[in-house]
Write a structure and sequence with these properties.
By secondary structure, this protein is an alpha+beta fold. The chain has helices spanning about 40-45, 50-60, 80-95, 100-105; strands at about 10-20, 20-30, 35, 65-75.
Amino acid sequence: MTEEIKFKGTYFYANGKRKTAVARVRLYKGTGRVIVNKKDPKEYFGTADMIDVFMAPLVATNNQKNWDICAEIIGGGMQAHAEALRHGISKALVIAEAGNRQTLKPIGFLTRDSRIKERKKYGLRRARRAPQFSKR
């Protein structure tokens, strides 16, 4: 039995993105439980810093104990997962309560960080790194 089945009732849904990571977030009225990829966040992320990153929108709007969060994240690395989850939670909070927008927008939590790796070009070693020049 998956953890997602334990969350029942209506929810607010949003996608959060960062680099190549995509977080699908569901916000349920509840007591503050968080499930990330069917695991506890401490088990999934490992460090308290990463947990602080994605909990920041809830702390900013003073909603830590009002919402249960169920999220699935794919792609990217751990830091991108945390930031994609933060983006998704922020968007879901705005959908749930429009008044949260005035709090979250100035902090920058509703803006998608679209920086991704630049593609490799032919004749170069990486996106911009040219082969070493030889005089002789």
